[in-house]
Write a structure and sequence with these properties.
Number of helices: 54
Family: Belongs to the NPH3 family.
Strand content: 5-15%
Organism: Trapa natans
Shape: globular
Keywords: Amino-acid biosynthesis, Asparagine biosynthesis, ATP-binding, Glutamine amidotransferase, Ligase, Nucleotide-binding
Enzyme class: ligase
Distance between the termini: 83 Å
GO cellular component, one term: cytosol
Length: about 1250
């Protein structure tokens, strides 16, 4: 075969020459002749090539017939006449293996020999599949030959298999789809596992094979693969029973090779010589992108063998340090911390000294308090200690006999760690103290290490106040100090005087006890040998002297106590004067709100809280000064009071007020229930508790668990009213009916009044569910007015039911385990690991174990989508909405309204502000409403929200965020909201950031405006609704899907920070009234001045007592994700474009065949979701389909132009939105809303009715 340039074809001979490529034109021409008897192929000077094939940037001149005879892809191709010198030409896009592989395929088509090697066989197999070179085209075609070579030659050789797998790294997704990667990984794993199943004698006596790879160097071979192939091999090795030590060794070697700095001891950090910038530059500079290394860390953590002996504790701590450095998923970090806790006794102090890679500014932003900054990950170590103690407590009783040495080792480790971090000048005393007292009583046999740590901390922090020093020293038991430590402490002028006295006193007690122990022996020896009586007398005199000194110490201590009391009285007088002047300057709301914490305090805690922070608690009896009190408060750093709370001074309550509060106990919570477990051991109980903790962000106030045989009901509570009452699960009178609830029952008082034959155990609004079940069986759900998801167990017949509110305001998921168990949870993350399949529980349904399935309990007339005919009455609509808002003002905690400046949130704020003074909440929190808004600086929402707040006279809180801050939070947002829907993520991120700010102010409940656009057709795409039938059917579809979109966003974005969101527009009574109005009134008619949601705007258009300014009342619909700032969505798209390549999006259908992402932004969100929730069941809980401006797929058909611009943003409504995509906002468009508003304001309801 000769490969020549066109200029040389006339002078070419018929000899077979070596190939030659003319570089300037990159042209390759087949000019060979091959004669085998029946078929002859002649050179190009006899038969001119008629096809030009382009692969990458190389052109091949060939003949059409040899190609179509073996390649089905080319045969079925519709050839078009070429404009070049050839009859036909075409280009092969994204050809596997590139032009070198196509050259080999071309040789095969011409019948020329080609060599199969481990380096080219994978690319030839993929190329043959690309060109459809099947047996149907010709016997012995390339697919059959390459497949046979892989099966019988490659897979039988370990070395060749490794080479083929390496070559597959550039052949995605073809190599994956053809199972080449899977077969190679399985083959390597089988060979690697073979030796692990044999004894050492069998390995030694086995004859050597030339091709065999030394399994002792398996980790080196494994480290040469790409991370995804490495994971596949490790997974296969686990399945084939490889020893966990071998797998662990491979993982350690891989980490050391691809994670620079994992073995580097950062000594400078212990001397505080490095900052964040210096560390990251040094580590990242060694190679690799941060995103790639983050993916490697997450992958390695996900495949760690569960056996404790597989990897050492030192490696686990190195991986933890690396995971924190690369900001790995919180769930993986949490699992790694729990794994470390199981082998914590093997750790060293140097390994625990994990540096904090956030600088002080980053930490201050992250923790909301400069005092919480530190140079080490103290919070991480605190969690590890808590996991260790939790594991120790869950051990069976027969194993607890051997716990003492393990706890003793960990206590010494913790004391050494405390001594090391005490040198950190930025470490707060709160963190240090909480970590020091994390171990239980008796864990430390000697407190010398703890004393050394405390002394080091006080020495490093000389400005620590005296009362903080005393509180810190109380952690130490002076009675457990050695003699050397006591001598040092007695002369330590840094210690509080009281601590020094306790040290001296404890030493005297020790000496006295020692003397008493020796007195009987001395007396006995004196009776036997009288010459020693003089020595006994000397000892008695010494004891008397010590007692005299003890009395002097007591007198000195009493004198100091008297002086201290006098100083304390003077301080209280000064404090009362300052407090009097300050209270006069505080607003009514700020002087009323406070943390509802007194019901949780014990008597001793109340005594402490009533005293000044500098005052010590009452002294224990003299004989116990050197010992700790039995009561010891254990607290976590995450549960400490916020430094920025708005809750200050409690209101004095009357007995009537206290009794009224006990009648109510609303709570938005997290629930988990499991029924029919095969395993009902203590381990299963611990697993349920662990899964329930994943919902703790929903209910950080309290936890509860009820176990009955193989049934478990767990609850995480967020107390909204009366935190001391209503802890769940809840029961009936004899505790035969158990219920766990997430939500609010607004009509519980009316229901209680009807249940006169029942006795209620608590003040919880949700307790009525248990008694209604007793009274009415399973047919009581429709009696409940509120938002709720609950699970109820009847222990009398071991039946259970689960139900969800009408619209799905509160989330609920249902799952099934492999053991036949049935699971329910408020969020998917509690089910994803233990359930084989799970679904989003449909709203308005009840599940009954007796019936074995779901049935709908909520069946309103509009659900059938029949066209209603009730005429529009603005007064009825207004009264229904005001009633819905007033109903949601019942609360005993600080609250506010989410105000975006749009119509819906502004109406909620207006009604709440108008009726707040007459509500019970005003007597506790004042009559001034608090409103909250979030957005980029200069965004539309911030501007209009400020105007509404000024008009209503609310106390407005405005929060700003940047596009980068939103992007940084995306992964955490997706973890909490559990969806990859583009619109939901766009809107959830600002709401997620705002909720964190709101919670930091002490607010636990907010009222929001979700649901109005679905009820009244407020989205801009409703402008194109062709008729009232289509309009009404679309609103019904939108309401039915609310639980997957806006309800999910509003609930989970706020619950992520322990804030409850209430939505009055989705009140059941208001919804029934609104959806029964003739949809002709909801239709958008610009010709008569009716814009979107006109009937709602008109109902609140009161000239005498206006609810809102006109330009706000008739402001054009702005979706929340647009209103926070148009650059927010634009920034998300730009970020996704930088993260997702064109090739990745082109292959999205292979990776995500279900709900395939059509944009790079959707692909980016989907990739994050799949990493957090990899199961098929998880991705099936998210809806899909085309959408424009939040429409359903059906509504896209209303306008043909929308199918070309499928974006959920409101600006995608071309021709409707004033700032639509690809439209210049000229003066006409900008003023269109105001023109409509002015036109609409002059049209009375009667005239509009006439037009209809």
């Amino acid at each position: 075969m000769a490969l020549q340039s066109p200029q040389g074809t006339d002078q070419s001979d018929d000899r077979v020459q070596d190939q030659s490529i003319v570089v300037p034109t990159k042209l390759i021409t087949i000019t060979d002749s091959l004669q085998d008897g029946e078929i002859s192929w002649f050179t190009t000077h006899q038969f001119h090539p008629d096809v030009l094939v382009q692969v990458e940037n190389v052109n091949f001149r060939a003949h059409k017939y040899p190609l179509i005879s073996k390649c089905g892809y080319i045969r079925h191709r519709d050839f078009q006449p070429s404009i070049s010198d050839y009859e036909y030409d075409f280009k092969l896009e994204r050809f596997p293996g590139g032009w070198e592989t196509f050259q080999a395929v071309l040789r095969f088509c011409y019948g020329l020999p080609i060599d199969f090697t481990p380096q080219n066989i994978a690319s030839l197999r993929c190329a043959s599949e690309y060109l459809e070179m099947t047996e149907e085209m010709e016997d012995g075609n390339l697919i059959a030959k390459t497949e046979a070579f892989i099966t019988f030659v490659i897979l039988s050789s370990w070395r060749d298999t490794i080479a083929v797998l390496k070559s597959c790294e550039n052949l995605s997704p073809w190599a994956e789809n053809l199972q080449i990667v899977r077969r190679c990984c399985d083959s390597i794993a089988w060979k690697a596992s073979e030796d692990s199943r044999r004894s050492e004698e069998e390995i030694r006596d086995r004859p050597a094979v030339d091709d065999e790879v030394d399994t002792s160097k398996l980790d080196e071979f494994m480290a040469s693969f790409r991370i995804d192939h490495f994971m596949r091999i490790v997974t296969a090795m686990k399945a084939q029973g490889s020893k966990p030590e071998i797998i662990g060794k491979c993982i350690i070697h891989y980490a050391e090779r691809y994670l620079p700095g994992i073995d580097e001891e950062i000594e400078g950090l212990r001397g505080y010589g490095y900052g964040k910038k210096e560390i990251t530059v040094r580590i990242f500079g060694q190679g690799g992108e941060k995103s790639d290394q983050k993916a490697i860390v997450e992958s390695l953590l996900s495949i760690l063998p569960p056996q404790l002996e597989s990897v050492p504790c030192k490696f686990l701590l190195k991986m933890l340090r690396t995971a924190i450095l690369y900001s790995v998923t919180p769930a993986l970090i949490s699992d790694l911390e729990k794994r470390i806790a199981l082998v914590l006794e093997d750790a060293s102090v140097n390994d625990l000294l994990i540096p904090s890679y956030r600088n002080q500014l980053d930490q201050a932003i992250y923790t909301n308090s400069p005092e919480e900054c530190s140079m080490h990950e103290v919070d991480t170590v605190q969690r590890i200690i808590e996991y260790f103690l939790m594991h120790e407590q869950q051990k069976p009783h027969h194993q607890k006999k051997h716990q003492k040495p393990k706890k003793y080792t960990v206590s010494k480790l913790l004391d050494s760690y405390l001594a090391a971090i005490a040198k950190d000048p930025t470490l707060s005393i709160t963190k240090f103290r909480v970590l020091a007292e994390s171990l239980p009583e008796g864990a430390r046999t000697c407190h010398d290490g703890l004393y050394r740590a405390i002394d080091t901390y006080i020495k490093t922090h000389p400005s620590v106040p005296e009362h903080d020093r005393r509180r810190l020293c109380k952690v130490m038991d002076c009675g457990k100090l050695s003699l050397d430590a006591c001598m040092h402490a007695a002369q330590n002028d840094r210690l509080p005087l009281r601590t020094v006295i306790q040290v001296l006193f404890s030493e005297q007690i020790k000496m006295r006890n020692a003397m008493k122990a020796k007195e009987p022996a001395t007396q006995q020896s004196g009776e036997e040998n009288s010459p020693y009586n003089n020595q006994s007398a000397d000892k008695d005199a010494e004891i008397k002297t010590l007692r005299a000194e003890l009395e002097k110490v007591k007198a000195k201590m009493a004198e100091l106590q008297s002086d201290y009391s006098e100083l304390q009285n003077e301080y209280e007088k000064l404090s009362s004067i300052k407090q009097h002047h300050r209270s006069r300057r505080l607003s009514g709301w700020a002087s009323s709100w406070r943390k509802v914490k007194s019901p949780f305090q014990t008597k001793s805690e109340r005594d402490v809280s009533d005293r000044d922070p500098g005052e010590d608690p009452p002294q224990s009896p003299v004989g116990h000064i050197g010992c700790r009190s039995n009561f010891r408060r254990r607290s976590s750093i995450s549960h400490l009071p916020s430094h920025h709370t708005l809750l200050r001074h409690p209101i004095k309550k009357t007995p009537d007020r206290q009794r009224e509060r006990k009648k109510r106990a609303y709570s938005m919570c997290g629930i988990l229930a499991v029924f029919g477990c095969i395993d009902n051991s203590q381990a299963k109980r611990s697993r349920i508790i662990e899964l329930s903790r994943r919902l703790r962000h929903r209910g950080p106030d309290w936890s509860g668990l009820h176990c009955y045989d193989d049934c478990y009901l767990a609850h995480q509570r967020l107390a909204i009213v009366d935190p001391a009452s209503g802890d769940q699960p809840l029961y009936n009178e004899d505790k035969t009916v158990v219920v766990t609830v997430n939500g609010e029952i607004y009509n519980h008082k009316d229901l209680r009044a009807k249940l006169t034959n029942h006795q209620f155990r608590t003040g919880s609004d949700c307790e009525v569910i248990a008694h209604l079940y007793e009274e009415h069986g399973e047919d009581f759900i429709d009696m409940l007015d509120g938002m709720f998801s609950f699970v109820l167990l009847d222990t009398r017949n071991k039946s259970f039911i689960a139900a969800r509110d009408a619209i799905g305001i509160t989330p609920l998921y249902m799952g099934w385990g492999l053991d036949g168990s049935v699971w329910f949870a408020s969020e998917m993350k509690a089910l994803s690991d233990d359930c084989e399949r799970f679904i989003s529980f449909p709203p308005g349904h009840i599940y009954s174990s007796k019936e074995g399935g779901l049935r709908r309990w909520y069946n309103p007339p509009w659900f059938s989508e029949q066209i209603p005919s009730t005429p529009y009455d603005p007064l009825v609509l207004r009264a229904a909405f005001e009633k819905a808002v007033i109903k949601r003002l019942m609360t005993d905690v600080p609250f506010g309204v989410l105000l975006s400046g749009g119509l819906d949130s502004s109406l909620v704020a207006a009604v709440a502000s108008r009726h707040l003074a007459d509500s019970e909440a005003a007597s506790q929190w004042g009559s001034q409403l608090h409103t909250f808004c979030v957005g980029l600086k200069g965004s539309p929402d911030l501007k209009f929200a400020r105007e509404v707040a000024d008009f209503l006279g609310t106390r407005h809180h405005e929060f700003h965020f940047t596009v980068q801050e939103g992007i940084d939070a995306l992964e955490e947002v997706i973890y909490h909201i559990e969806t990859y829907d583009v619109t939901t993520i766009r809107a959830s991120t600002p709401m997620f950031l705002m909720s964190r700010k709101i919670k930091s102010l002490g607010v636990k409940m907010v009222i929001s405006g979700e649901g109005s656009d679905e009820i009244f057709g407020g989205y801009l795409y409703f402008h194109k609704a062709p008729n009232k039938k289509e309009f009404h059917e679309e609103t019904c579809r939108k309401i039915k899907a609310l639980h997957l979109y806006d309800c999910l966003r509003a609930n989970k974005s706020t619950s992520a920070w322990g804030v409850e969101a209430r939505v009055p527009f989705l009140d059941k009574e208001f919804l029934d009234i609104s959806m029964n109005i003739d949809p002709e009134w909801k239709m958008i008619r610009r010709d008569i001045g009716r814009i979107e949601k006109w009937i709602l705007r008109n109902a609140f258009d009161d000239e005498e007592k206006p609810y809102l300014p006109k330009h706000i009342l008739y402001r054009q619909k702005e979706q929340f994700s647009d209103g926070v700032g148009y650059s927010w969505i634009d920034g998300l798209k730009d970020h996704a474009n930088n993260q997702v390549t064109d090739a990745m999006l082109a292959h999205a259908g292979f990776l995500y065949p279900e709900n395939t992402p059509s944009t790079k932004e959707a692909y980016y969100y989907r990739a994050i979701f799949e990493k957090l929730f990899p199961k098929n069941a998880a991705r099936s809980t998210v809806p899909g389909g085309p959408s424009v401006a939040c429409s359903t797929a059906k509504a896209v058909e209303w306008d043909a132009s929308w199918s070309k611009n499928l974006d959920p943003s409101g600006r995608a409504a071309l021709g409707v939105h004033d700032a639509a995509y690809d439209e210049e906002p000229d003066s006409k468009n900008v003023s269109s809303t105001n023109g409509i508003s002015s036109k609409l304001q002059g049209i009375p309801v009667e005239k509009a009715a006439t037009e209809v």
